[in-house]
Amino acid sequence: MPKGVAKANLPTKDCVVCKRPFSWRKKWARDWPQVIYCSQRCRRSAE
Fold it and tell me: Mind telling me which Pfam families this protein's record contains (predicted)?
């Protein structure tokens, strides 16, 4: 039996800068509600 959740069933959000959808990552598990950028590049371009 596989563990965890299938990639297709992970939550997604849209990046506020590039408007592309991005999915949940394990490193964001603790603060997923505060994640608004898909990458460091989008974070830098927003500032």
Answer: DUF2256 (PF10013)
The structural domains of the chain, with segments of one domain joined by +, span: 8-46
pLDDT at 1 exceeding the cut of 70: no
Closest to 47 in 3D by CA, of 13, 17, 18: 17
Q: Please report where in the chains the tokens 């509600």 appear, as a residue.
A: 33
| Degrees to nearest 5, angle at CA 19 with 14 and 24 | 30
Between 5 and 41, the higher pLDDT residue = 41
